[in-house]
Amino acid sequence: MSAPIRVLALSGGIGGAKLALGLTHAMAPERLMIAANPGDDFEHLGLTICPDLDTLTYTLSGLSDREKGWGRAGESWNFLAALDAFGGETWFQLGDKDLALHIARAHRLASGESLSAITGDICRRLGIAAHILPATDAPLRTIVETPEGPLPFQRYFVERRAAPVVTGFTFDGAAAALPSPALAEVLAGGMLEAIVVCPSNPYISIDPILAIPGLRDALRGAGAPIVAVSPIVGGTAIKGPTAKMMRELGRPVSVQGIAAHYGDLLDGLVIDEADREAADELRAGGLKVAVAQTVMRSDADKAALGEVVLWLAGRCRGAE
User: Fold this and answer.
1) Claim: this prediction has a pTM higher than 0.90
2) Residue 179: how many CB atoms within 10 A of its CB?
3) What is the DSSP letter of 37?
4) CB 3.0 to 4.6 Å from 306: which of 6, 23, 84, 181, for a disulfide?
């Protein structure tokens, strides 16, 4: 890497990609590394689909469908329509432009390239200055435990629309996974100034990353403050099933619940204005807290939140 990485972000989902984009506006993007959640990845139609990795790639390249938050802008669906006519599986939407990325990646994976190397090359081709990579190159898949039995994440989330009650999670393949080489190098390098946990679902976006053996200890041992942005605002989630999952698992749907979930991993937490009254309680628990607008409706909102996160990390380091 030509420029030393100063900030590492852990990201999953649309909220994670939004903050990642904001961070690229709040700092030199070439000094930012974003480790994507691998737990959403799955094999479909003979292809390895990496939803969170691709959402980051499309968002930071300016190719994303800004209305949906995922997929590519100006997408067409000819492949899916033709597949449906042949009785193929169409429950997971693959647009024509998006399909090109999956096919290119599958071909290169089959030739022996690592997912990290492929992602890095794709990002360079798309002009992305930040360093996007999977948290691990190994297959690591989230399994959602339900009263109906275990469901692979995409079957639960997309095919079943997150309807089944959640009783827990397992991360298939985690025990054998290693951090991707560049991620391990950055964590051991002693040059990080901040580690950011994006406002992603803690159970299905961040926990799969933390399930990689040794990674949680490596994060704490990196010598940089770890700051999270709460995905819960005013007792609910802006998008996705975070609040539903917390209720079903018997956890408080609150910023306190988010802080309790991460426990001693965090040094700081950014919460929304709607949760300002919780700030003193969180501080009493040992966290540095920043109160800000965390709902990112515009690029200006994303950049402003990125600046708050970096400011709070500076406070955690003892900087002015």
Assistant:
1) yes
2) 25
3) P
4) 23
